[in-house]
Specification:
alpha/beta
């Protein structure tokens, strides 16, 4: 590896619904993070790897910062805390319309870190110049050492500028991953995330937040991927809502998920969905650990 090669971890943090996952996908060029308008869409820390001849950037999308109400949310915030410990560059995402309400403890951490911070003000494509200037002034007071860049993740405005600045800020070093890789997650993870995204899009209120998706089998040959997936809910009433009248709701989720998986994996998909009750899984340490939420 050349002495001029650069490599590092770029960790994306911010409140829910400011466009972190859209930004991650724009930077990586792959649809790795699921995107919906609902808060808490991202539950895990998802890495996206971008490699060039002279650099490797390991992006890390984290759950939106919230005050936890149950153990699942506590585990989600652990992913954010670990992101503070291993960053070479922080991407702090806010948007033009967000009231600045990042929890004080996280702001204090950002004010103290020696790590470079790129503060990205997102959604400028739908904001006025005055709105943007007001946000710039506020953030310059709160994080005076941060470098502020106005972006639109959706329209990919200033994404190249952000990428170039990240590469400039990366430390010298060898690549952490094979240059052909673009994520640290296995195929099963993306099956579960695609199904969960469709549940977030098709159901309201508490239902999507009471759901966990478990991939029981994933068998791939040259032509087709066969996968069997359990949708876990906390109560019998939720099971009925997920299935819907004569199975119509579950069928709709399955059809949407299968089409999305076929686009993602570039293969025919045979998808089986089952709905099961796993009472109070969101507050069960052992179950949460089994589902990949921390130790």
């Amino acid at each position: 590896m050349s002495a001029t090669h650069k490599a590092g971890f770029v960790n994306i943090i911010g409140c829910p619904n400011v466009g972190k996952s859209t930004l991650m996908n724009a930077l990586v060029g792959e649809r790795l993070s699921i995107i919906t308008s609902k808060a808490q869409t991202t539950r895990h820390r998802i890495m996206g790897i971008v490699s060039g001849d002279n650099y490797q950037i390991v992006f890390s999308d984290t759950p939106g910062i919230i005050k936890p109400l149950y153990k699942l949310q506590e585990k989600m915030m652990q992913f954010v805390i670990t992101a503070f410990n291993d960053a070479d560059v922080f991407l702090m995402i806010t948007d033009v319309f967000e009231d600045i309400q990042l929890e004080e403890s996280y702001l204090q951490k950002l004010q103290k870190v020696q790590t470079p911070i790129l503060l990205l003000i997102n959604k400028v494509d739908v904001a006025s110049q005055q709105q943007l200037e007001e946000k710039l002034l506020k953030w310059r007071e709160i994080l005076p050492l941060a470098e502020i860049i106005a972006v639109s993740a959706l329209e990919k405005f200033n994404i190249d500028k952000v990428m170039n600045r990240i590469i400039e800020l990366l430390p010298s070093g060898d690549a952490f991953y094979d240059k052909a890789e673009y994520t640290d997650k296995p195929e099963r993870f993306f099956v579960s995330e695609i199904v969960r995204e469709k549940i977030l899009l098709n159901y309201r209120k508490e239902i999507p937040y009471s759901v966990e998706v478990v991939v029981n089998s994933f068998k791939e040959d040259e032509r087709i991927i066969r996968t069997q997936v359990d949708i876990l809910v906390e109560r019998d009433s939720q099971k009925g809502i997920i299935i819907g009248d004569k199975g119509a709701s579950l069928k709709r989720v399955g059809t949407q998920a299968r089409k999305e998986m076929e686009a993602f994996f570039k293969k025919q998909i045979y998808l089986e969905l089952f709905v099961k009750v796993d009472k109070d899984w969101r507050n069960n340490d052992r179950r949460l650990k089994n589902f990949g939420y921390g130790a």
